[in-house]
Amino acid sequence: MLALLAALPVLAVLVLMTVVGWSAARAGLVTAAATLVLAVVGFGFGVGEDADPGLAWSLTGVVAEAGFIALTIIGIIGPALGIHVLQRSTGAAARLRLALAVLHPDPRLGALLVAWFFALFLEGAAGFGTPIALAAPFLVAAGMKPVAAVAAALVGHAAGVSFGAVGTPILAQATIASTTLPEVTGQVLARGVLPYHLAFGWILLVVLLVIIGSAYGNRRGLIGWGLLAWASFFLPYSLIAWFVGPELPALGGALVGAILFSIVLAWRRERAEVAAGAHHPHPDVEETVLAELSVLRAAAPYLVLVAIVLVTRLIPPIQDALRSVTLEWQLPGGFAGSVQPLYHPTMLLTVAFVVGALIQRASWRCIRIAVVSATLQLGPVLLALVGMITIARAMSASGMTQTLAEAAAGTGAAWPLLTVAVGVFGSFITGSATASNLLFTDLQVSTARAIGAAPLPLLGAQGYGAALGNLIAPGNIIAASATVGLAGREGTVLRRTLPWVGVCTVLGGVLAFALTLV
Prior knowledge:
By secondary structure, the chain is an all-alpha fold. It is 77% helix and 2% strand. The protein has a two-stranded antiparallel sheet with strand order 1-2. The radius of gyration is 23 Å and the shape is globular.
């Protein structure tokens, strides 16, 4: 009965957004209020003689944490949305669309390049919502409708989420697991999660191809390109994960894969032109240089972002210097928050916006329009984020989250079938694969011992589920939708991704069960 009560907030959000059709802001705020009441009445949150620091401070702490986390996410959305508006107002978006057409005349392949490789690269380099916030607007600029663009960005970046920003989710999981299992290192966990992505990564890629094909009204001929995209990414991704560790599989796989994919695109285009007898006069060297500079200038915000990400994430002295500045706060009851402002994606995106605007020689009017337009769209988004994160924090602080996990663990020998679902649930309520792993790694280890199963397949399933959960996490959908002007229609996006997350969750559970029997 207690587990059913604990599940009510999650069920309410899903029903209100997907069935009733409410916006994330409305569903989030209403459910947040109900969750706080449920936490107090049903789970004794903040009340009773032993309750510390008392009801008032407990409720204040939950809302304070939710507001703080929401502001850190808004800090990502704001400059990302600003870049999107700037690109449109300066004409850079149209220029990039033409450049993709030059690489290959089929716009679907340009969309695949962005939604798959670009999103995966940003996930491996920066994480924290950055890939969706930038890939979705880029896809809209490339001609996709906003709903399809957000869904494509969500699906496209998923294979990189288990490794996240330079291995953060896996390294966090290793920190927890190694307290009881010293042999479990980051590299061991990288090998543990890899079979799940190799077994089912193709499903999400097929979903991505369907989304792209439907968006452009033509699904013909995409399977072959999909196979190339899968192999170009997953081969280097797998080799890096197995032999190097968790820090670079997504980033390295995406970078190597994008180069291979682009080379094949260009080769096929030239071959098609030769076969068609197309004759192009040799371009003037000066014209060629000017054209290339024009494309580079149009892509300036994205190129600056990639450069900053590589420098700040891969050069230890710079990384350490930026991470040395931390802003922290704490309230009675252990409610707290911290952020590293110089290392956070907010700073990366803001610098990319400013430097990109300067390189493009954008007028003050264009910059002002971008800043004002982006800022005006953040109000409803902030309300939606506060609502959803309040639900997550209230569930965690009151014990609802742990109650659900323990109820699942009570299934005994059938537990491996549910391990991926637990990872999905963790990311759904927190919006973070890292947070999901921190929440449930101990549970996976202790349950594995209780049922006599090997822990590594279950830990790998946890990491895989944490990645899948990002596709349906309300906070991620809210953030992505906001960058393309879809605030209020988040339920439409959730309906696109939820069924496939369900399919991959079930299949992942079956694989986890099979691996524990080996």
